[in-house]
Amino acid sequence: MRRFSPPKESEWVNRLIRIEPGSAKAVPPKYPHQNTALAILDGKSMSVNPPVSGIVFLPTGSGKTRIGIEHMARVLEADPSHRFIWATYSRSLIQQTLQRLHDYGPLFKNTTHAVWLDGDLDDSHFDEAQVLFMTRDRLKAELDFATNLRLKRNPLRDRIQEAHPTTLIYDECHQLGAEGLQRFWLQLHEKILDELPARHRRWRVIGLSATPMPTRVEAHALLQEHVFKPRHDAPGIPNDWNVHILHRTTVEELLAQGILCRVNTAIDRSGCFDIPEDMLKDVVRERKLRQ
User: Fold this and answer.
1) SS3 of 99, please?
2) What would the pLDDT profile of 175-198 be if each residue is shown by its tens digit?
């Protein structure tokens, strides 16, 4: 699949990004663990009321982003009115995901639009784009606005209260331990979600991570009691964290299948390694560095 050269960040922030279904045939997931994760995301956990939020717990390099993007493509094919918010903590991760979204364009049956939101959310964003990308700080601000009931209207609050199906995919969900984000997320449940009858709660959160829980233990309660609360009406993986894990594949399983290779720590132990001269020149290029 041909890769394109990503534009500068300034060329796509707050702009409508058009993802055209490519003429190439969409390549199905290559590995069994990806198919299993997608079957769970697309199945009962999506269809029950309210839909089941949970974590896709996979090792680094096993295709979490591919799974998230393909799930979006499948859902949008079945329901073009569905909207996705893709959030993560860093701008570089959003750039990487937008690259993958372009690469996997053939997965989408219809023209899809995305926006990297770096300003206040308004109604036009949900009208024009099926996928909104935002950093953790932007998401925190939007949750703050949505839970400020002195504001008569808010696009995110209106969408949730009017039962429009919306999925938030949080990449690297162990970052959900950030205190400010947790405060506003708790307000979202207490002021909005918990006030809705179950059949009207069409809000869902999917966490992607190789290390699903924040290191700060006191941050676990929000995930356990609200964001990824265990559910018994849909598939889930038993775990010691008391959260809903939709799917888990271990490093050992992927090593045994030859999908991942073992990490060679010889370089770490030696403390030194050689950089080929051609590679060094390619990286340095015209930068004025001393020899």
Assistant:
1) helix
2) 999 989 999 999 999 999 999 999
